[in-house]
Amino acid sequence: MNWDTIEGNWKQFKGKARNQWGKLTDDDWDQVEGRREQLAGKIQERYGKSRDAAEREVDEWIDSI
């Protein structure tokens, strides 16, 4: 799946993303607003991961949906 599709339908995909990354707060989700880089940054921040690891997680999540 391509990120443009996810970004365009963010409200639908946000629930699935919340299941994947439960530590992210409502404020985090509001800031992400479907932007891939923002999502990776929030994952990095909340889970203490490297930027590369967070981006890999996002890529794996995209592939799984």
UniProtKB/TrEMBL annotation:
InterPro entries: CsbD (IPR008462), UPF0337_stress_rsp (IPR050423), YjbJ (IPR026042), YjbJ_sf (IPR036629). Residues 4-56 form the CsbD-like domain. SUPFAM superfamilies: Hypothetical protein YjbJ. Transmembrane segments: none annotated. Pfam families: CsbD. PANTHER family: UPF0337 PROTEIN YJBJ. Belongs to the UPF0337 (CsbD) family. This is CsbD family protein. It comes from Marinihelvus fidelis.
